[in-house]
Amino acid sequence: MKIVIVSSSDLHGGAARAAYRLHKSLLNEKIDSSLVVQKKLTDDFTVIGPSSRYKAVFEGLRPAMDHIIMKVVKAKTLFSSSYLPFSSIIDKVNTLNPDIVHLHWVAGGTIRIEDLEKINAPIIWSCHDMWAFTGGCHYDDNCQGYEVECGNCKILESSKDQDISRKVFNRKKKIYSNLDNLSVVCSSKWLTTCAQNSTLFKNQEIDTLPNCINTKLFRPIDKNIARDMFGIPKDKKVILFGAMNSLTDKRKGSLELFESLNLLNMENTVFVIAGSSKTKADLNLKYPTYFIPPLFDDVALSLMYNVGDVMIVPSLQENLANSIVESMSCGIPVVAFNIGGNKDIIEHKQDGYLVKEFSSSDMALGIEWILNNKEYDKVSLGAREKVLSTFEESIVANKYIDLYQKKLEKLK
Fold first, then answer.
1. What is the C-alpha separation between 156 and 182, in angstroms, rounded?
2. Same domain as 381, residue 269
3. Range of the domain at 307
4. Are strands 310-313 and 289-292 parallel, antiparallel or unpaired?
5. Are residues 155 and 140 in contact, defined by beta-carbon separation less than 8 angstroms?
6. What is the pLDDT of residue 230?
7. Are residues 361 and 297 part of one domain?
8. Is the same domain home to 165 and 264?
9. Are residues 150 and 208 in the same domain?
10. d(CA 172, CA 131)
11. What CATH number is associated with residue 114?
12. Does residue 183 carry a pLDDT above 90?
């Protein structure tokens, strides 16, 4: 069985990391897997990137060009039109002659929607957000237009029926109708429900399978060692927050988190923002604040999580956040809103705390509940055990192998 996984990158972004981790775990299970990417950041020979420096430059410009389109249409959050032609990805995939092509995050200029028809193998598409079944947005801000027909796009603040979201939606509708061997995977029950309710995927076969993680890398490490590495006080309780674009993307929930921090009354406590260099802006927080710049390898990320006593993931819409699974794998309990895929990972007051939707006051209570918990070690161990039983790489890889085999059996 030969699998080709397709992703925008092997390391840049949570979905890319998920694709790379699955690829490596399949190799560990003796599956012939290749990962084809637009932007290669590792030196892993099993990852196939641009074949020359010229092509690497050209492919590197594609996300920027797609981003320009997003700026032109004035999208208020991530929006991908998938209009850019001349991607070399599909030719590489077909040259490898796979039994199954497993798509992951392929927006942001990676491929054109119309290119899907050129793939010469059955397709499994792992959705890491809502983009595959919307008119271009990656998270719909609870618009739910995708359940009927996009247009009047909330993300574009558009009042036109025939806006770009309608055009992208109709392109997807046309192409998907021509794909005989497309199957869909969602990594959370929430996203599966959204996909099943969508016009574009309502007739597709949809499975729910989580992302995987290397629990030997993401594991509890002596906090004093971790804090010493990043210059974080060893004698304080540490509230940790981090995500890509955590201070600029409103969906990441930094405003709600900052409100909750100012409601807290904790002594000997500091706040750490990971994935962001120090900002000039005054965040006006009552706790001493430290910054950890973006990190790009799993060893450093594991160390980073281990500086914390509690991890806050305040996203307003979320599928299955790597940051939650990674943190819990390190034995760091998580506080997050009771939305999306968060409830697939966190069991309330067992291994973390699920906050009432968008309540900063309840978030403050959740932080206090974990930091002041007399059974903190039990909660921490529960977080670690949840990941070991559900998200450990060999467990998830074998579930995907079963899915691949079922897919191939149906085609016989």
1. 29
2. yes
3. 223-390
4. unpaired
5. yes
6. 96
7. yes
8. no
9. yes
10. 11
11. 3.40.50.2000
12. yes
The mean pLDDT of 192-212, rounded to a whole number, is 96
DSSP assignment letter at 350: T
Q: DSSP E strands: which ranges in 42-151? A: 47-48, 100-103, 123-127
Whole-number pLDDT of residue 155: 94
On whether both 272 and 231 belong to a single domain, the answer is yes
CA distance 400 to 408: 12
Q: How far apart are the first and last CA of the chain?
A: 14
Give the C-alpha distances (Å, rounded to integers) separating 303 from 152, 223, 332.
45, 9, 12
Residues 30, 114 share a domain: yes
Token pair recorded at residue 248: 């600029």
Q: Does the residue 217 lie in any domain?
A: no
- Indicate whether 189 and 286 sit together in one domain: no
For residue 102, the cross-strand partners are 5, 124
Higher pLDDT, 337 or 84: 337
Sheet holding 334-337, edge to edge: 289-292, 269-274, 237-242, 310-313, 334-337, 352-355
Query: Is residue 140 assigned to a domain?
Result: yes
What's the structural domain count of the chain? 2
Q: Would residue 359 count as lying in a domain?
A: yes
Task: Record the pTM.
Answer: 0.94
Predicted confidence (pLDDT) at residue 281 exceeds the cutoff of 80: no
Q: Is there a contact between 331 and 380 (Cβ–Cβ < 8 Å)? A: yes
How far apart are the C-alpha atoms of 362 and 375, rounded to whole Å?
20
Pairing assessment for the beta strands 182-186 and 205-208 based on DSSP bridges? parallel
390 Cβ neighbours under 8 A, 6+ residues apart: 210, 345
188 domain residue, yes or no: yes
Could you write out the DSSP letters of every residue in 58-84?
A: HHHHHHHHHHHHHHHTT-SS-B-----
Residue 49 and residue 60 in contact, taking contact as beta carbons nearer than 8 Å: no
